[in-house]
Design goal:
The chain is an alpha+beta fold. The protein is 33% helix and 20% strand. The protein is built from eleven helices and 16 strands. The protein has helices spanning 25-41, 53-60, 92-99, 125-139, 154-162, 171-179, 183-206, 213-227, 287-302, 309-312, 408-423, and strands spanning 47-50, 75-79, 85-88, 108-110, 147-149, 167-169, 231-239, 260-269, 272-273, 276-282, 317-320, 327-331, 348-356, 363-373, 376-379, 389-391. The strands form three sheets. Strands 4-3-2-1-5-6 form a six-stranded mixed sheet, with helices on both faces. Strands 7, 8, 9, 10 and 16 form a five-stranded mixed sheet that branches. The chain has a five-stranded antiparallel sheet with strand order 12-11-13-14-15. Strand 8 and strand 9 (272-273) form a beta hairpin.
């Protein structure tokens, strides 16, 4: 990873000022496109055809909203040695011509894709796409070379084949390009994690008996969007007997005293994602819950997992994170012992672990995001997780408030003062 001076750690680091170096978005755009071009040049492909919104954003630095994510309505062609051409959804192409000067205006074009089969062969749309791509490949002198496609529906693949285009996997090239993060990307990932730090502070204050899981999810969404998130992909809220086994989805469950609860917040800030778990207890804690959390923390710190690797995949593993939730490196005992991956400077990945408690219902879940630097790993998920935090009212036994006759008035005053601190801590 090449750095270009320290970027401001200010929460307003994305706002440009003349008196401080912050995130350099022109540099971000140039670096990403250069990395994609270099990865393509190093491959055996003549061009890349991209439908994945993450890849389109990476090479074109354009975005038209998360509603477009599952439509396959936009597509970009990156030929070897050339700038990308983007066929976009209706008026979006004209918008890019006006407001995205980092690519030639003629490279932004209106176009219609089969949209996962919604435009079938009878409409002529699939074959029109195939013909367009075949024409561009000829124009750029790569017509005889393989075309790498990151993801597409079979209607599109068959149309490309009818146009005599040799289609193969292109996702490997883009994942290679995205594997090492630039200084600008790391700054955005750090800020994205910072938004979740604030959400966990709010969750900690909210947690108490009588709150529903979905109430916490709603407040997390609200706060993230207020702070600038452009997509809240998921807020997993799992509590009580739902913790074991992990269902990976929130519900309308009511939190009760003594519940263990864990959360995962996955959102996107300026295109860069988080995957960030934390575990809390509500009102009190048991020995088995403390033990599960301690073991979970130890496993995470030691970066080891369960003995049954396929069962715990997704619970005990590491994954790269960037514009996509899952990027290289993928680290799991399912495959990493036989096929190890070199950890390189500039990688950013999330390490997550899970431990069921011996009570048969509770469980702990912790996740940290780390940046690989020349001196080791820097953790960018900063909400405290070294020890299990107990949220909500902390109850005091009545026996603790019984006056000792020998202590007199001073003894009672001390007990009442202690109860004021411990009995109505509001999350303290």
């Amino acid at each position: 990873m090449t750095t270009h001076g320290r970027l401001s750690g200010s929460p307003d680091a994305t706002r440009a000022v003349d008196w401080e170096q912050r995130i350099d978005f022109p540099r971000l755009r140039r670096d990403r496109l250069e990395r994609a071009k270099a990865a393509l040049e190093a491959s055996d492909l003549g061009a890349l055809l991209l439908f994945d919104p993450n890849n389109i954003r990476y090479v074109t630095s354009t975005h038209i909203g998360e509603w477009a994510r599952d439509k396959n309505a936009r597509f970009a062609l990156l030929p070897r040695g050339a700038d990308p051409i983007l066929w976009d959804f209706g008026s979006a192409a004209r918008h890019h011509q006006l407001f995205a000067p980092w690519l030639p205006p003629e490279n932004f074009r209106a176009g219609v894709a089969p949209m996962r089969g919604a435009m079938p062969v009878e409409t002529g749309i699939p074959d029109r796409l195939g013909a367009r791509i075949a024409h561009e490949l000829r124009e750029h002198g790569v017509a005889g070379e393989p075309l790498g496609v990151d993801m597409a529906d079979l209607v599109t693949i068959e149309a490309l084949q009818r146009a005599r285009v040799h289609v193969t996997d292109g996702s490997r090239v883009m994942l290679e390009a995205r594997k090492i993060k630039t200084a600008q990307e790391i700054a955005l990932l750090d800020q994205s994690a910072g938004l979740v730090d604030a959400v966990y502070e709010e969750i900690y204050r909210m947690l108490r008996p009588g709150i529903y899981e979905h109430e916490i999810v709603a407040r997390a969404h609200q706060l993230l969007f207020e702070m600038g998130s452009e997509l809240v992909e998921a807020v997993n809220a799992v509590s009580g007997d739902r913790c074991n086994p992990h269902p990976h989805v929130f519900s309308d469950r009511l939190l009760r005293p003594g519940d263990q609860a864990f959360f995962d917040i996955i959102h996107s800030f300026m295109g860069y994602r988080t995957c960030y778990y934390r575990t809390f207890n509500v009102g009190g804690v048991s020995t088995s819950q403390l033990d599960a959390y301690k073991r979970c923390r130890e496993w995470l710190d030691a970066a080891i997992g369960f003995p049954d690797e396929e069962t715990c995949f997704g619970l005990q593993f590491g994954h790269g994170i960037g514009v996509g939730l899952y990027e290289p490196p993928m680290i799991s005992r399912v495959h990493s012992l036989d096929h190890p991956v070199e950890i390189e400077e500039g990688m950013v990945f999330a390490l997550e672990t899970y431990c069921a408690a011996t009570d048969g219902r509770s469980a702990a879940r912790i996740e940290e995001e780390v940046v690989v630097t020349a001196d080791g790993c820097e953790v960018i998920t900063r909400f405290p997780a070294e020890e299990l935090l107990v949220a909500g009212r902390i109850y005091v036994r009545g026996a603790d408030l019984v006056r000792d006759d020998d202590a007199g008035r001073d003894g009672m005053a001390g007990a009442v003062a202690a109860s004021a601190v411990l009995g109505d801590g509001d999350g303290a």
